[in-house]
TrEMBL record:
The chain crosses the membrane at residues 35-58. Keywords: Membrane, Transmembrane, Transmembrane helix. Residues 299-317 have a biased composition (Pro residues). It comes from Mycobacterium helveticum. It comes from the Bacteria. This is DUF1524 domain-containing protein. Residues 327-363 form the Excalibur calcium-binding domain.
Amino acid sequence: MRPRSCPHLPRQPPNLLGRREIPRRSRCTVRGVRCGLSGVGVVCAVLVAVIIDGLGFAGKSGAPQGSPHPGRIGATTPPSSAALAGPSSSPGLPLSFVPGALEQPVDAAAAAARLATLPIKGRAPKTGYHRGLFGDAWTDDVTVADGHNGCDTRDDILSRDLADIVRNGDCTVISGVLRDPYSGTTVEFHRGQGTSSLVPIDHVVALLDAWQKGAQQWDAATLRNFANDPINLQATTRSMNEQKGAGDAATWLPPNKSYRCAYVSRIVEVKTAYGLWVTQAEHDAIARILTSCGAPSADPEPPPTDTAPAYFPPPPASVPDSGLPVYYPNCRAARDAGAAPIYAGQPGYRPGLDRDSDGVACE
């Protein structure tokens, strides 16, 4: 006869397996093992302990092995991407932004060496750009790290970048605490209408920036991978995300200066991995930051030497101002005159020479 389920007994709180235990009687079962209040109960208790141990639970805290929060049920960590996602076309995460290592020192010299390999070109036009080219937002259908793990990319990054996480199931992050590296502030995350958007996921190399610096030649799979690659994603605050927009290192840097070395190192890592180029202004901005955090200068100054006093010729005779505005018919004329690039507000700047409307003409 099949044992009864003992419906007459009081309901108990959930156990470690998420089930409500029933006090054992002679006609009740625990996972198919009959347990009574007689001497057999001792044997039954041992069998149940073995079953629970075999399911991967250990310790006195009652937390599953691998949980970042001992004692908290439902705060388990999803299986590692290495076990679920197959070979990735993206390189491994560098030390500066391995999950949990955002505050470790940056290898500025290595980043400077990679920067030296990036092509320097002008920014291409925005022609044809729209967000949909990079696939559905936060799709799991990618071959980079954490792809095909059953969780969308946004939850993967929240799980990586937030502390004190509470989840609903294996994937959905309900709440947590973000130590925002961009601003240096700490904010709480709560999933819900009007609150989820307070902690967006930033593309370190913006999608539009990538589009104008090499991504126009990619196939659909590479575009989708780029938009969901953890090496290019960072949880931040909405204000930081809006301030940055599609800016590169020449136009925006994190207000938190202690994170700037890691930030520009991530840009270099991403652009190296995906074969993107940098503009001259972006290259120079990154190089300055890396030099300030320990990387050798690209052009070290020679040691001082004893030389004869320098000769300073008299200044040339001043040329009277013609009063006419400076005008260059095209960028070639501006370059021939040694005026390029021309920044907004400088003589000779006009929107017709600034193809991408970023305030820098004839880059």
